[in-house]
Amino acid sequence: MTAAPDVVIVGAGAAGLAAARTLRAAGVSFRVLEASARTGGRAFTESESLGQPWDHGCHWLHDAEDNPFVGIAETLGFRFLKSDGRRNRRLHLGRRMADAGEQAASLRAVHEAFEAIAAAGEAGRDVPAAEVLAEHPSDPRWAGLVRQWVALMTAQDPETVSTLDYSRYRDTDHNWPVIDGYGALVRAAGADVPVTLSCPVRRIDWSGPGVRLETDAGTLAAKAAIVTVSTQVIADGQLGFFPALPPALAEAFAALPLGVAEKVALSFDRDVFGIAERTGLGVLDEDAPGRGPFQFQLLPGSRSAAIGHMAGEMGARLLKDGPDAMAAAALDALCAVFGEDVRRHVRGTHTTGWAQEPFIRGAYSCALPGQAEARAALFEPLAERIHFAGEAVHPYAFSTAHGAHLSGITAAERCIGALAA
């Protein structure tokens, strides 16, 4: 490969692109190696499948008041809504829409469940979220909905969610959807960063004074590396290290697995929903509680569309069954609300498969019960020349694109300091 740069960045998602821009501003030479054929990582927008932009991965500007992508979006002219659509949220109970009292009760049950989980963590308890939910049981009517929202927020079922880790996430309740696509925004923010695509790094050799990165295109030497691949890729051994990672560090990666959070997009040849604004729709079938609830974003227009969300065990099961099963489950849920005639107007379907993406292997990180300190372990550099970044590394904005972005900046700044020492 080409002459050795000061730093090699592994991965061109939000973290890697932010790290590259930070290094360039400091005059530090770098090379970005991306395993896939595109930049953005878990931030990915495309328009072909629906005829309008939709995000396969991250979509909301979480913690909007402090999210740097808000300012970036304004600078680049990306449209977003300063509302998370809560006033346009509906719940269907299988045969009818919930009335105002039921709607309020369901929202209250979900809110109280998250409050109980966070309170347990804030009290220092690092236990499964399911344990806390059992201590604070909600109305049985909403139990499935509570479990689903825990899975959507963490990509894990409550049994495998650390209460202490969850409590450290900073949520301002301001989550703004990016109309033009969060994935497109992340890519545009890093569009001026040179990236070598389709170049997976197979192993990082840190046995000498610098680092040597072994790729399918050859070996590249550098003084330091910033590694932004997902925790699951490292835990599964897809990116190797020589010598092997210290046991405590390897255990930290394993303690922060990526769970399952997938989407199903359905487009229609006419307006099948009769809505004027983007609307959130929950479908909870009281007659078939084992089927699991669905959450949708309904997109209005003469050719309306729906984005269905599935996570945790339910998402994993449908993902294993394949795209047809995912689309069928989502369409069944929509037909329960809008009638069987909806089937005649389906123009196309598209499903995500983040857990099956070989260079990502999941949605976003969540600490296992008893393992909340794992994130802090990833923050520490390895031998002062390998720095880790990505959503899993951020102490309070984990699971988000802006957390990844901020972690990339921090890793680059620490790398610059180490090189200057």
UniProtKB/TrEMBL annotation:
<dbReference type="InterPro" id="IPR036188">
    <property type="entry name" value="FAD/NAD-bd_sf"/>
</dbReference>
<dbReference type="InterPro" id="IPR002937">
    <property type="entry name" value="Amino_oxidase"/>
</dbReference>
<dbReference type="Pfam" id="PF01593">
    <property type="entry name" value="Amino_oxidase"/>
</dbReference>
<protein>
    <recommendedName>
        <fullName>Tryptophan 2-monooxygenase</fullName>
        <ecNumber>1.13.12.3</ecNumber>
    </recommendedName>
</protein>
<feature type="domain" description="Amine oxidase">
    <location>
        <begin position="15"/>
        <end position="416"/>
    </location>
</feature>
<comment type="pathway">
    <text>Plant hormone metabolism; auxin biosynthesis.</text>
</comment>
<dbReference type="GO" id="GO:0050361">
    <property type="term" value="F:tryptophan 2-monooxygenase activity"/>
</dbReference>
<dbReference type="GO" id="GO:0009851">
    <property type="term" value="P:auxin biosynthetic process"/>
</dbReference>
<dbReference type="InterPro" id="IPR050281">
    <property type="entry name" value="Flavin_monoamine_oxidase"/>
</dbReference>
<comment type="similarity">
    <text>Belongs to the tryptophan 2-monooxygenase family.</text>
</comment>
<keyword id="KW-0073">Auxin biosynthesis</keyword>
